[in-house]
TrEMBL record:
<dbReference type="Pfam" id="PF02233">
    <property type="entry name" value="PNTB"/>
</dbReference>
<feature type="transmembrane region" description="Helical">
    <location>
        <begin position="171"/>
        <end position="191"/>
    </location>
</feature>
<keyword id="KW-0520">NAD</keyword>
<dbReference type="InterPro" id="IPR029035">
    <property type="entry name" value="DHS-like_NAD/FAD-binding_dom"/>
</dbReference>
<feature type="transmembrane region" description="Helical">
    <location>
        <begin position="6"/>
        <end position="26"/>
    </location>
</feature>
<comment type="similarity">
    <text>Belongs to the PNT beta subunit family.</text>
</comment>
<keyword id="KW-1133">Transmembrane helix</keyword>
<dbReference type="InterPro" id="IPR012136">
    <property type="entry name" value="NADH_DH_b"/>
</dbReference>
<dbReference type="InterPro" id="IPR034300">
    <property type="entry name" value="PNTB-like"/>
</dbReference>
<keyword id="KW-0472">Membrane</keyword>
<feature type="transmembrane region" description="Helical">
    <location>
        <begin position="127"/>
        <end position="151"/>
    </location>
</feature>
<keyword id="KW-1003">Cell membrane</keyword>
<feature type="transmembrane region" description="Helical">
    <location>
        <begin position="60"/>
        <end position="77"/>
    </location>
</feature>
<keyword id="KW-0812">Transmembrane</keyword>
<feature type="transmembrane region" description="Helical">
    <location>
        <begin position="225"/>
        <end position="245"/>
    </location>
</feature>
<keyword id="KW-0997">Cell inner membrane</keyword>
<feature type="transmembrane region" description="Helical">
    <location>
        <begin position="38"/>
        <end position="54"/>
    </location>
</feature>
Length: 481
C-alpha cells in the first residue's frame, strides 16, 4: 500500500466520523444546522479523497462537468424551495440518488464489457456482479418510485391510490421476478455481445416499472413512510454500488443512510399501527385534498351532521382565560405558512400566564419531522414540542386545543370505530380536551380521504379560513382584551 492510499483511507475515516457526528446533530433543531454543515463538509472530504484515488484514471473534463452541473441543479432549488414543498424536494433528491446508482451499475457493466472484463486481482468476481445487479435493480426502483412520490406530493398526480385492484400484487411480483431473472441472465453471462446489453437494459426497465407500480397504489396518508422507505433503499443501493466499485466512502455512507432510513421507516409504521408490507401493498388513503377548497360555514356537515363555527373573537376569549393551550400542527399549517403567526400568538398567550405546548404526531405533514422543522423555523422552543406519547395524557387537563390542518392524526375513529381504515392507529387525544378549535379552509377531508368525527363533536368549534390569517386575527383580538 503506497502513501497515497494511506492518505485516501485517512481522509475517508475523517469523512465518516463527520457523517456520524453530523447525524447526531440532526436530533435537535438547535444543532441541526451545524450537524448538516458538518456532514456536508465530510462529504466534500470524501469527494476529495475519491478524486485523489482516481487521479491517474479519471476523465477530469467529465468529472468537472458533472460537479458543475450538480451544483447548478442542486443549490438553487435547495435555497429557494418553500417549507411547504420540502417533502417534494426530499423525495426528488432521494430519487436522483437512486437513479445515479442505477446509472453507475450500468456504466460498470459497459466498462467491464458485460462484467467479463472485471479485474479479479483484488476481489472475487461473483460478489461484484451480484452487488452491481442489486444496485441496478434497487436504484432504478427507488428512482422511479421517488418520481411518483414527488408527483403525488406536488399534486400533479392524485393522492388517492391508483392500482390495478386484485391484480396489483401479482403484477408487482411478476415484475420483480422478471427483473431478477434478467439479472441472473446477465450475471451468468448466458447472453453475449449486444444481447447482454438488452438484458441489462431489461433489468433497469423492469425495476423502474416496479417502482412505479409499487408507489402508485399507495395513498397520501402513507407518503411519509414511503419517502423514508425509498430513502433507505437508495442508501442500500449506494452501499451495493460501493462494494462493486471497491469504494469505501459509498459503502459507509450508503449503510448509514440505509440503516437510519430503515429504523425511521419501522418507527413510523409502528406509529401508524401498520406493517411495512401492508403499507407497500397500498390501497389506503384517498387523498381527500389539502383543504384548499371553498370556505364552509356552520350548517350541514357530511352525512347530515352539523358543525359549529366560531369567530376569531370567541377563539381569543377561550384561549385568553385558559390555563393551558395545546397547538396541534398539520399540513394546513405548512400550506398557510402559519408557523410564525402561531409563534406570535403563543407569545401573547404566555404573556397572560397561559402555558402553550405543541403536540407533534410522528407522521404529521408529508415527511418525517415536517412539523418539527416548520416550528423550529419560527424559533419555537424545542422543549415546547412534545411527541405523541409525551403529550397524550395532557389533553384531558387542557382547556383549549388548537388544531391547524391536522386531520388524520387527530381522528378519533382510529380509536373508536373498528370499521375505519385507520382503526388502531395511535392518534393525538385531541377529543379529550375541554374545548377544541379547528382551523380549516373547508370541510374537505385530510390527505387520507377519511372523514373526521372530531369536527362534529359538541366540544369542537370550526374557524374557517386561511390558517395564517385566522391566527393573526385571533392574535389581534387577544391584544384587544
Amino acid at each position: 500500500m503506497d502513501d497515497t492510499r494511506y492518505l485516501v483511507y485517512g481522509l475517508y475515516i475523517i469523512a465518516f466520523a463527520m457523517f456520524i457526528y453530523g447525524l447526531m446533530g440532526l436530533t435537535g433543531p438547535k444543532t441541526a444546522v451545524r450537524g448538516n454543515k458538518i456532514a456536508a463538509a465530510g462529504m466534500v472530504i470524501a469527494v476529495i479523497a475519491t478524486l485523489i484515488q482516481i487521479r491517474d484514471t479519471g476523465n477530469w473534463i467529465l468529472i468537472i462537468a458533472g460537479l458543475v452541473v450538480g451544483v447548478a441543479l442542486g443549490i438553487p432549488p435547495a435555497r429557494r424551495v418553500k417549507m411547504t414543498a420540502m417533502p417534494q424536494l426530499v423525495a426528488l433528491f432521494n430519487g436522483v440518488g437512486g437513479g445515479t446508482v442505477a446509472l453507475i451499475a450500468w456504466a460498470e457493466f459497459i466498462e467491464t464489457d458485460g462484467f467479463a472484463g472485471l479485474d479479479t486481482a483484488e476481489s472475487p468476481v461473483v460478489p461484484i456482479i451480484v452487488a452491481s445487479l442489486f444496485a441496478a435493480i434497487i436504484g432504478s426502483l427507488s428512482f422511479w418510485g421517488s418520481v411518483i412520490a414527488f408527483l403525488k406530493l406536488q399534486e400533479v398526480l392524485p393522492g388517492r391510490p391508483i392500482s390495478l385492484g386484485r391484480l396489483q400484487q401479482p403484477v408487482n411480483l411478476l415484475l420483480l421476478l422478471g427483473a431478477i431473472a434478467c439479472a441472473v441472465v446477465v450475471g451468468v453471462g448466458a447472453a453475449s455481445g449486444g444481447a447482454q446489453m438488452v438484458w441489462i437494459i431489461a433489468v433497469l426497465v423492469l425495476a423502474g416499472i416496479l417502482g412505479l407500480a409499487v408507489v402508485l397504489p399507495i395513498g397520501g396518508a402513507d407518503m411519509p413512510v414511503v419517502i423514508s422507505l425509498l430513502n433507505a433503499l437508495t442508501g442500500l443501493s449506494a452501499a451495493a454500488a460501493g462494494l462493486a466499485l471497491n469504494n469505501v466512502a459509498m459503502i459507509v455512507a450508503g449503510m448509514i443512510v440505509g440503516a437510519s432510513g430503515s429504523i425511521l421507516t419501522n418507527l413510523m409504521a409502528k406509529a401508524m399501527n401498520r406493517s411495512i408490507p401492508a403499507i407497500v401493498a397500498g390501497g389506503f388513503g384517498g387523498g381527500g385534498g389539502t383543504g384548499a377548497g371553498d370556505g364552509a360555514g356552520a350548517g350541514e356537515g357530511l352525512e347530515g351532521r352539523t358543525v359549529k363555527a366560531t369567530s376569531a373573537a370567541d377563539a381569543a376569549i377561550q384561549m385568553a382565560y385558559a390555563n393551558q393551550v395545546i397547538v396541534v400542527p398539520g399540513y394546513g399549517l405548512a400550506v398557510a405558512q402559519a408557523q410564525h403567526a402561531v409563534k406570535d400568538l403563543a407569545k401573547l398567550l404566555e404573556a397572560r400566564g397561559v402555558e402553550v405546548k405543541y403536540a407533534i404526531h410522528p407522521v404529521a405533514g408529508r415527511m418525517p419531522g415536517h412539523m418539527n422543522v416548520l416550528l423550529a423555523e419560527a424559533d419555537v422552543s424545542y422543549d415546547a414540542m412534545k411527541e405523541m406519547d409525551e403529550i397524550n395524557d395532557e389533553f384531558a387537563r387542557t382547556d383549549v386545543t388548537l388544531v391547524i390542518g391536522a386531520n388524520d392524526v387527530t381522528n378519533p375513529a382510529a380509536r373508536n370505530d373498528p370499521s375505519s381504515p385507520i382503526h388502531g392507529m395511535p392518534i393525538l387525544n385531541v377529543d379529550k380536551s375541554r374545548s377544541v378549535i379547528v382551523l380549516k379552509r373547508s370541510m374537505n377531508s385530510g390527505f387520507a380521504g377519511i372523514e373526521n368525527p372530531l369536527f362534529f363533536a359538541p366540544t369542537t368549534s370550526m374557524l374557517f379560513g386561511d390558517a395564517k390569517a385566522s391566527v393573526a386575527q385571533v392574535a389581534e383580538e387577544l391584544k384587544a382584551l
